[in-house]
Amino acid sequence: MTTTPDATPDAGPPPTTPSPATSPGADPRAVARSLVSSPLPLPTTTRLALLVLVAGAGASFGTWWWLVLGQDNWPAAQLACLPAAGASPDAVLARFTGCVDHVRLAQAAVVLCGPLALLVLALLHRAAEVRLELWWWKAKPADENSSLHDRLTAALADPDGPRPVLWVRGRRIGVQARASGTRRRPWIVADFNVFNLPDQQIESMFRHELTHLRLRDVGRVRLATAAWWVLLTAVVLPVGVALLVKPALLGTGLLVRMAVVLLTVRLTLYAVLRVREYDADLGADADPRAPQGAAAAHIGSDRPPDLRRRLRRAVGLASHPTPAARLDVLADPARSWGVSPFESLATGLAAGLLFTDLALLVAALMPTRTQLAYTVTGLLTGWLIAAVATVAWWRAAAVGHRDATGPRAARAGALLGLGLLAGSQLSGRAAGDWVRDTRTADGLATELSLAGVPAAQVLALAAALVIGGALFALWTTSLARAAQAAVSGPRSAALCTAVLVLSGLLLAVPLGSWFLFARLTAARAEADIRWSVVDSPWWVTGVAVSVVGALIPLVRPASRPGGRRRATGTAVAPGQHREAAVAVRRSRPVPVLALVLSGVLVLAGAGWAAFGGPFAQPSAVQSSAPRSTPGATPSAAAPGTGPSVAPTTAPGSPDASGDPTVPLDQLPVLPPKAEQTKQFRSNPANVCFVLTTGGTGIWTDPDNRRETAELLGGLDDTVLRAASAVLLRDPTGPVDNEAVIASYLRCDLYYRYHR
Description:
Layout: H1 28-36, H2 43-67, H3 75-79, H4 89-111, H5 113-136, E1 139-141, H6 147-155, E2 165-169, E3 177-181, E4 186-191, H7 199-214, H8 218-245, H9 251-285, H10 294-300, H11 307-314, H12 323-331, H13 341-365, H14 370-398, H15 406-426, H16 434-438, H17 455-482, H18 492-522, H19 527-534, H20 537-550, H21 552-555, H22 574-586, H23 589-611, E5 620-622, E6 661-663, H24 678-681, H25 684-693, H26 697-700, H27 702-713, H28 718-729, H29 737-753
Parallel strand pairs: 2-4
Antiparallel strand pairs: 1-2, 3-4, 5-6
């Protein structure tokens, strides 16, 4: 991975939009005090949210691997759904599909045990770590009459507040002091050689550690570190050992993806560790009791990084930024509120990983409303993205950072979209052909991999995310400037929260539609099924909300006359205010451009979904692959896992797995009449083969529907006979979706359990 998750802000030219934090002559200590005391979330907080999202997604997949897939998809519960004869056809279908949906809902709910178990284990790890650290370091309580206690008292910003317990360790591990403990019982551990430092440097060191405790990042960061170790030891290593002991076709893809996710969590953790140092430096420097330049002198006294530290920094594994980077932030505190490229990329990656598992849970709650389920998942994921990305851009606009300007914001937004694509494919559910390799095609084993999709389709899907992410970034930064985002003030946090909520609403339908479209594309769905993604009231409503939301920056007043910026609490020169107003007015065409481009994307996507294009239809389909049904969460079963009938037409060349392929234009809807013998009709494998290879034509065409119903009625199976009876009631009328879904579900059980 070439991108280094470094929180060090860019040391380029000054921001283009003047603000109190970046205007010439501003006191850096006053600016630092304003940033640290801001009601807006600090960069450490948003980075921690990223780590939580990625770790939670990895834990949920590990739970599904062990508790659902590892238990053969709960055969006893699944087979208990098979009804006995005697009820009406409608009652049989309703009971069967309802029972299977209930089982899958329980399986999806079990997946939530992964993040919860990760949290519990991390808390236990954290509690044990607090007690073991002092023993490992051979730490002893500092003498109350020592000079260290006097220096700690001098460094306390609030002498009447909680006083940390001071320890001195006899085993040095390379740092001078470290804040730890709990919120109720904080303590600071210092190296034994700290006694040899000047008093002013000791006080600066203690102020830095006390700021960590005041910002409450110690416990959260330690908890995040514990979560990484739990993810490694309780999820990645056990699954890896299981795949090595019992190799499977999905093994390589899973191992690679889990390693990448684990590395991403680790890189994000180190990024959090570096960002928290900037926040602590600013808090220590902002202390009015600290001498001028004391924090800079303490940081400058650190030894230059050696080769080992430079190498760790180059690959993103440095837990502390370099002294030069920390001094740059002290000189210009607004630099710490920039948006790094890694933050945008990691945000998208975390959202992509989370969406795949969250969508399955929501879809299990709405088994017959797949589009609505994906829209709801898009709303929840959109709020999570906004909690990181929107807040980061809002902070950058509040201090006038150049990362909130058009080109840089668009680049960060494009990386956000690229991360979404990478996250969707790094998910364990995109590791391969789950239908073929796990003998199940239920909703939890959905095929999401775009590896076998034509390159033109993948590029189109990637372009939609990249361009959409760039437009979202431009919209967010334009709205932040139009709303005059402020560092402090009574409305600064309220406005940021309102924009966060609005951002989730704008992202709901685009995110849900894209992931559903990608899922259908990965499953080789036909053009009419892809069209169903946009042919829905939820999609139209979402587009309308997006269009209205894109116009909000134009409605909002750009600036107020006068010599102060609203809610900043710091004076701004009149000339700077005029320049800021001009900059905001120049940013007004950005939402218009975003609106126009959004309309172009919507029309292009709708046209591609409706007409397919020259590359939309795959040239061939595996005879063992399922066909998706419109609006149904579960797809068809995998006939390759049980006895099957050979295609009646000449097969194409075998693929890499050895399965023959049949061109779509030669694929029969039903076997020829001459082969439809009584023995053929009595074999469930043959009938299910017809269902999985016949496409939508066997249901939508009246003649084919009648033949399919007769074929289902010839089996000695209660569910399929009930589906046949329902379909034969009105072969020329609307298709009964319950009968179609029940048929596929029944075949899914047959191929997995041969019953």
